[in-house]
């Protein structure tokens, strides 16, 4: 796998630029990587940005459906539920994502720091 331009892939996923995402995936950019500056996965980030076609494409391209996005404190299914993307949630279940017994109580980093500063 190539490191490629992961940051460009990440931004394209959040903005809904499917052609640029396809280009980077085809070029071998690791879609399961979470850059140390971001601590977020492209899959969870695009789900939170409500980019359903990108999320489905990343899942079809091998994105790990179980991978926690540390910055957001969410797994893909938690993110899909949070923003209301039932098609993504269904696809995750088809890929074997188990229904969590209790949703994670983790808060995202920005929410945590926002409350501490208040």
TrEMBL record:
| InterPro entries tied to this protein | Ankyrin_rpt-contain_sf
This protein is called: Uncharacterized protein
Q: Which organism is it from?
A: Roseateles toxinivorans
Classification of source organism? Bacteria, Pseudomonadati, Pseudomonadota, Betaproteobacteria, Burkholderiales
């Amino acid at each position: 796998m190539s490191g490629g331009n992961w940051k460009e892939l990440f931004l394209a996923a959040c903005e809904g630029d499917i052609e640029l995402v396809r280009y980077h995936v085809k070029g071998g950019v690791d879609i399961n990587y979470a850059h140390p500056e971001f601590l977020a996965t492209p899959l969870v980030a695009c789900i939170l940005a409500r980019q359903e076609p990108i999320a489905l494409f990343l899942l079809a391209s091998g994105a790990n459906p179980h991978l926690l996005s540390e910055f957001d404190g969410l797994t893909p299914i938690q993110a899909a539920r949070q923003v209301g993307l039932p098609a993504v949630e269904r696809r995750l279940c088809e890929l074997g994502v188990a229904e969590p017994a209790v949703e994670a109580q983790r808060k995202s980093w920005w929410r945590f720091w926002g409350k501490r500063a208040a």
